[in-house]
Amino acid sequence: MAKQRGIVFFEGTIGGINFYYRKGVPTARAAGGGFTRKAIKTGAHMVRVREHNSEFARCSKVNKVFKQAIRPFMLGYKDGTLHSRLMQLFLNIKDCDGVSERGKRVVFLGMDSEKGKQLFKDFVFTPKRSNILPCDYDFDWNTLTFSVSGFEVNAVGFPKEADYMELVLGVVRFDFETKRYTRVMAAPLVIERDFLGDSFTVAVSELPSGTGTLFAMVRVAFYQEVNGDGYLLSGGNAFRVQVVGI
């Protein structure tokens, strides 16, 4: 039995090695017998463990900065599973790296593939509300405009306490190699319960500067007005976030 050491810890079985927590301490044990920390670092039979640990650590760093990049969209949203679900997303995208050898695969090369991009776009940020609106919507990269049609305010699913809905559009440029990001946000659009229109548009003024992957993201949240101030309603049913273009 040996203690796990490093910046990341994980649980499960890899290459016949069981990783788990014992009295709150991250621990590893080989099936049929123990081993030393030196064996993990140098043992020939631990190659797969070292490869996984190396790739896992790189994905963890991407995950940390990515959450900072999308923070304006996630403010007020509480979901204890988001970190682990994002981590699994980046591990899966890393697997799309068909250039690097095992142990050196990276997210940014995985994002170069069509499969990696699709995995990213299909990721469900808010499981209780996977689609932001029950109608047709699209982001146009030529005009940087998010367009909604066939909208019916009664079909949106206003929580009973909500007085209005706020839609926030932003475009993020995230460099998965350098882990640097920039973003441009549009002014929030407020839609009240008595909105009669069936379509609307929101646009950003320009693309964010820098290098990296561009993606458009939309947040829909519901608010209750108290003494002239809006208060974000808690709960997954009152909050939706989605990547609408990449």
Structural features:
2 domains, Immunoglobulin-like, six-stranded antiparallel sheet, 6 helices, 246 residues
Walk me through this protein's architecture.
The protein is an alpha+beta fold and 246 residues long. The chain has two domains: 119 residues, no CATH class; 121 residues, Sandwich (Immunoglobulin-like), CATH 2.60.40. It has six helices and 13 strands. Strand 11 and strand 12 form a beta hairpin. The longest helix is centred in the first third of the chain and has 23 residues. The model has no long low-confidence stretch (mean pLDDT 86).
Secondary structure topology:
Layout: E1 2-3, E2 12-14, E3 17-22, E4 25-30, H1 37-42, H2 47-69, H3 71-74, H4 82-94, H5 107-110, H6 114-122, E5 136-140, E6 145-149, E7 164-175, E8 180-185, E9 189-192, E10 199-203, E11 213-226, E12 229-232, E13 239-245
Antiparallel strand pairs: 1-4, 2-3, 3-4, 5-6, 6-10, 7-8, 7-9, 7-11, 11-12, 11-13
Helix pairs in contact: 2-4, 4-6
